[in-house]
Amino acid sequence: xxxxxxxxxxxxxxxxxxxxxxxxxxxxxxxxxxxxxxxxxxxxxxxxxxxxxxxxxxxxxxxxxxxxxxxxxxxxxxxxxxxxxxxxxxxxxxxxxxxxxxxxxxxxxxxxxxxxxxxxxxxxxxxxxxxxxxxxxxxxxxxxxxxxxxxxxxxxxxxxxxxxxxxxxxxxxxxxxxxxxxxxxxxxxxxxxxxxxxxxxxxxxxxxxxxxxxxxxxxxxxxxxxxxxxxxxxxxxxxxxxxxxxxxxxxxxxxxxxxxxxxxxxxxxxxxxxxxxxxxxxxxxxxxxxxxxxxxxxxxxxxxxxxxxxxxxxxxxxxxxxxxxxxxxxxxxxxxxxxxxxxxxxxxxxxxxxxxxxxxxxxxxxxxxxxxxxxxxxxxxxxxxxxxxxxxxxxxxxxxxxxxxxxxxxxxxxxxxxxxxxxxxxxxxxxxxxxxxxxxxxxxxxxxxxxxxxxxxxxxxxxxxxxxxxxxxxxxxxxxxxxxxxxxxxxxxxx
Length: 495
What we know:
- Helix 3 packs antiparallel against helix 4.
- By secondary structure, the chain is α/β, with parallel strands linked by helices.
- It contains 13 helices and 17 strands.
- The longest helix is centred in the first third of the chain and has 34 residues.
- A 5-stranded mixed β-sheet has the order 2-1-3-4-5, with helices on both faces. Strands 12-16-17 form a 3-stranded mixed β-sheet.
- Helices cover 48% and strands 16% of the residues.
- Among the domains are: 134 residues, Resolvase, N-terminal catalytic domain (Rossmann fold), CATH 3.40.50; 140 residues, Putative Large Serine Recombinase, Chain B, Domain 2 (Hect, E3 ligase catalytic domain fold).
- The protein starts with a strand and ends with a strand.
């Protein structure tokens, strides 16, 4: 029997060397495979720390191979090595094995999900594994907060520091060859230099960040904002959420209000004085447009305009006079332009495209898909409600409200409902897409809708409108040219 082996370090093995753990498990699975007459074709090794399925590239690769029928079985040390994350992720993993007929083999037991008893046992065991994981995670978070509140530094060491332990507490010590550049950044900014100029000069002096080839405006600005350099520890500045119910969810960072931050005196020494730090913050407050602290989009062009030279997203930056500019984050790349000029140029282009479409297709009529779209929205809401209900079923089982037979009966009905709803939604989405593609005038209607609503919309809605018709806007501008001498190239979003 051809099989794959999947190796992953668990939370229970914190403090142990990752390679040591994976090597130990690899030896154990190899020995078992020989004894059981299993031929291991490939071994997948996961060394990332993320619990989300979509943060685990090796698991995603394994699932694709399982779905393609590449193996008869997959060897793991235990079921919880596949997933202890969200129940939704667990469901995706088990469904992949179930649909492909691939066995899950552990040294203690082989699970054939085509067998009802094995299927139920696998689901129940992954559920209990998830419960255990949540308990462990809660305990770890509690310990983490206690360490932070006592001045310990638990994150990765920022530029200018290295991690050490003092009295069994994690903290930082200064790396002077890096710290001198940090001080220089603060002093230059206080003297009137911008982040781009600072990055250019620091790079020319031989400074090198840890995770890239050179300092940029973004990395310099991050250092200038970081209170770690005055001996402080700030926690809970932001939280991460996931949006999207299907496929790879979108990860969004939300900046929290200051009153929800944890700010304490760290055990580590400061690199810059508080006076210099405060001066820099005052200057930055007047110069930069702050990021949203509630997850809302404040720039109509967010994620839309990219530099045609380096490929990075253009960013909005405010000037001292309050006039925002659109700038490339790569030092020495394209020159910037006034934000309003770029925004207006995009709207003018859409006007031109609309005019051309109306001339080319004067008799075109957009097909009526409003009812279909409304039904699709309703189906997506039903799916969200069903997923929430699925979670509640597990809670009721855990609380003893449902016995196992009742739980199983209700779960099967719910799974059937979810499957039927997903099929209807997929079919409806294809119907809508085909309808729009069948009529080129649909593009004209979409552009017209954007132009009709744009001026009355807030920045977030403007951004949504532009993204509905444009895939990407590519920006170029030579240095020392007129403010309006930029060039835009447009990728329209296909119907």
